[in-house]
């Protein structure tokens, strides 16, 4: 079987029409799936030793949120290294990254698989994957025909990436090319609120304005701060983090501005503060609403004049620091209540960014779930983690009051529960694995995770993970307050949370 001129022309037209439009690639692979008789197809972009899905057809929606690392997916690694068409035999020992992710075929493994690496010159920029349930599905197509398809898609993908790169450079440098470090922080989401936020991040990152990032607990404000820093001209300098809520009043000034030897009891040497550490870079002040009024006044002085004074020192030091601040409070209400300085609020909120809650990003829930499933798969050494259609429906039907962080914890908990209850290294997530969170959504009394079939260590970990998650949610994600509620030392809580995969 050979492609007709009309069929090839249709592919070319799909690729060139509306070259900057987001759904161009979705139309393309839908055309290819029909032309080649695939059960599933995917267009992937290659970046930093991983493949990132740009468009899928015939695959579960959560695939769009997954990030396929080469070392975690031997088939994709083989495609990346091949330099030519790759045909995997039906009895290949290499696991297929899409096993269980073709709707209606969740229990079956993919039988026919073809990979087409996509190049710009000698540089790998992506891959096109074609999958089918029939072992002989692609035998009628010659390598030459598939190379031609790959060449057409490579050209279109390269053009799209060049356009995106030029737009990014224009935003950053006013139209001139830049040598700034590339952005590594990725914001997962295709919903309208998320795309608007990503657009605003690109705009404000190119400036040197201070930014106030607002949003509910668990929405990802720290991720926004990282994206702003990495997209700025300061990207090569440090991004320094400080959680204002975790600062005891007695050491807060020293943490921010440093101190000199003998400034107070215990000051046995000179110490730089966060502002000095962040010189020429960015300082991210999380939970800024927790700062005392006295410290707010000193912070305002730094923003106005660019100089700081170490505790116990009469001399001033000049610093060049961009401040990004975050809060889950309504600072306008705090100003009216006299708990936050109006002049500092106006200094910080020249370009405010609101991170939308997950309930306003319903389209992104499944994408994020896929992203976290893949993270858990790699972390726990599993061959695959698949969401059933019923599980996906359960996730999208829940309000997620704890936002993205709650979803991340729910996926991790579900994977641990499913692995403990099953055998082997393949995990299929069912609605029952998300029971604890959903009971809270329906107004039922919250329960501890189901522990049937779990050994003592896994059951203990699951219970502790649940208790910590609830304590954080109940205390606005403040670790010190959660530690007090759990009657334990905050440093021990941090260590335990890290071991349990909550940090």
From TrEMBL:
Pfam families in alphabetical order: AAA_lid_14, GAF, Sigma54_activat
Keyword ATP-binding attributed = yes
What's an example GO BP annotation here? Answer: positive regulation of DNA-templated transcription
**Record-level Gene Ontology MF annotations:** ATP binding; DNA binding
Positions of the Sigma-54 factor interaction domain: 187-416
The answer to keyword Transcription applying to this record is: yes
Write out the entry's keywords from A to Z. Answer: ATP-binding, DNA-binding, Nucleotide-binding, Transcription, Transcription regulation
* Highest taxon listed in the record's lineage: Bacteria
Annotated protein name in UniProt: Sigma 54 interacting domain protein
**What does the organism's lineage look like at the top?**
Bacteria, Pseudomonadati, Pseudomonadota, Gammaproteobacteria, Enterobacterales
